Amino acid sequence: MTTQHAQSPKWSMVVDADRCTGCQACVVACQAENNVPLNTDDIFKQKRAIEWIRIERYWEGEYPNIKARFLPVLCQHCENAPCEPVCPVYATYHNDQGMNVQIYNRCIGTRYCANNCPYNVRFFNFWEPVWPESLRNQLNPDVTVRSRGIMEKCSFCIQRIRAGTRRVKKEGRALADGDVVPACAQACPTDALVFGNMHDAGSRVRKMSEDKRHYRLLERSGTDPNVIYLKRVDPTATEGAGHE
Ligand code: SF4
């Protein structure tokens, strides 16, 4: 276990594309943890489904030598976030821990932020979310239920970050690697998602981000994301060591 520096943490996630099997356990865990509205048939058909983390599936090669590829995509928590300067009411802003934060009760629903996000990870509540009676008791009391007209997206499970920070303070110690685990990373059976403090030189996330397979989504756009991807390793590929 490594300990945190005195400076504030810089939260970050590493997504190892080589480990992702596309099982979607992360998607379900995120829906349950963050009270994400249910994607019923009609909502899905209108292309209004909300998923804070989604698995992009694509195919590589030609039949019969075709392979399914998976890439988990969530808010990239960009350092130069294109969503932030376009919000007229500062409902989305960058905090001092490397995160792009969304303030629900400030949002007036212009959707400028979603239009300006190149990763398509912001979702607008076109309807008041409704859960069947049998599921109401499973809503997470630590997370606000967003009403109609509000923009929402991945928060890196900020409620878990706050709870972890409070817990270690109570225990009188510094935050250690692994003290905060978002729902998606906790549920992933292959350990494809690793979360931690980039300022901690001994943290897993920092070490993995230095792997030679690392890259960022749409790197050339200059958004400087805090989510880092590791390329897939394909031993059958003839050229290069992996695929983005
Ligand atoms: S839970 Fe892990 S393996 Fe499954 S889709 Fe998500 S990232 Fe991939």
From the 3D structure, determine the CATH topology. Answer: Alpha-Beta Plaits
CATH class category:
Alpha Beta
Strand proportion:
15-25%
Strand order of the largest sheet: 8-1-10-9
DSSP helical segment count:
7
Assembly state: single chain
- Unreliable residue runs: 1-5, 240-244
User: In percent, how helical is the residue content?
Assistant: 10-25%
The H-and-E topology, N to C, reads as: EHHEEEEHEHEHHEHEEEE
Task: Give a short account of the largest sheet.
Answer: 4 strands, mixed
- Structural Rg: 18 Å
Integer tally of domains: 1
Task: Explain what the structure shows.
This protein is of the alpha+beta class and 244 residues long. The chain has a single domain (11-239), classed as 2-Layer Sandwich (Alpha-Beta Plaits), CATH 3.30.70.20. 19% of the residues lie in helices and 19% in strands. The protein is built from seven helices and twelve strands. A hairpin with a 5-residue loop joins strand 4 (92-94) and strand 5. Residues 1-5 and 240-244 have low confidence and may be disordered. Iron/sulfur cluster is lined by residues 20-26, 55, 70, 72, 187-188, 190, 192-193.
